[in-house]
Amino acid sequence: MYDIVIIGAGIAGMTAAIYARRAGKSVLVLETGVCGGQIVSALEVWNYPGFAKISGAKLTGEISHQMNNLGAELKYEEVLAVAKSDGGGFEVKTDEGEYACGAIIIATGTEPRKLSEKQAKDAGERPISHCATCDGALYKGKPVVVVGSGNTAKHEIKYLEGIAAKVYHIHHDEPIPKDAVAVFVAIGRVPATTVFKDLVDLDVDGYVVAGENCRTSCPGVFVAGDCRTKDVRQLVTAVADGAVAAGAALRYLG
């Protein structure tokens, strides 16, 4: 049995693990994607205090190294269900096993919004990407399309214009040009919280309802990072949430 299971190994989750391990608690961190979260793919980060400029991979790598050195256990497993256990505490079921713990910190962040059914059908077998900086180089000298209308779409277009032969820009539900060889989706993100809908309160958009104390509607379950209801979603607020959620979990465990 673990003292704390942290679901998500982004900036918020790793920070929570660091604080919990420094307090001597046993910690399991569960992650389905890349350790470090969505900021890993950022070529340059300009707004993290202490660094005039640093890559997302470098920044998250340093935090991950610190977390690992403190003894947090990291497993790449998908969480399928979370429930209260009969004897107190919680049971976390993954695609690899089940884990008992005294407290949980939800730090699953957000995930890219998917194409509409119509556009997905339009795309056919063409590759779909949610990150121009990650995959843009694969389509050098070829026509691509960016789906979206906000700042994210503008950033993707600007980046791809220096690589692709042509960059089409369309909005959600518009037909995908037939000659585009790849589709870059930039239509926003949604919180990755569906698995927790029967455990904690979610708002209408799926974000875990919690204030600055990071406490959810379920005692013993805390939330940190972009999946929490909040006004500002930045690296620094994710770090702050991680520290606050860990502190709250430590007080809960006693």
Tell me what you see in this structure.
With 254 residues, the protein is α/β, with parallel strands linked by helices. It folds into two domains: 175 residues, 3-Layer(bba) Sandwich (FAD/NAD(P)-binding domain); 72 residues, 3-Layer(bba) Sandwich (FAD/NAD(P)-binding domain), CATH 3.50.50. Strands 1, 2, 3, 4, 5, 6 and 13 form a seven-stranded mixed sheet that branches. The protein has a four-stranded parallel sheet with strand order 8-11-9-10, with helices on one face. Strand 2, helix 2 and strand 3 form a beta-alpha-beta unit. Helix 1 runs parallel beside helix 2 and helix 1 runs parallel beside helix 6. The longest helix has 19 residues. It is globular, with a radius of gyration of 20 Å. The model has no long low-confidence stretch (mean pLDDT 95).
Give me a quick take on this structure.
The protein is an alpha/beta fold.
- Helix/sheet category: alpha/beta
Average pLDDT taken over every residue: 95
CATH superfamily of the largest domain: FAD/NAD(P)-binding domain
Write the CATH architecture name of the largest domain: 3-Layer(bba) Sandwich
- With helices defined by DSSP (H or I, 4 residues minimum), what is the helix count? 6
CATH class of the largest domain: Alpha Beta
Mind telling me the C-alpha Rg? 20 Å
Question: Which regions have little confidence, pLDDT < 50, spanning 5+ residues?
Answer: none
Shape: globular
CATH topology of the largest domain: FAD/NAD(P)-binding domain
**Gap between N and C termini:** 16 Å
- What percentage of amino acids are in beta strands? 15-25%
Instruction: Describe the oligomeric state of these chains in a short phrase.
Output: single chain
Total domain modules: 2
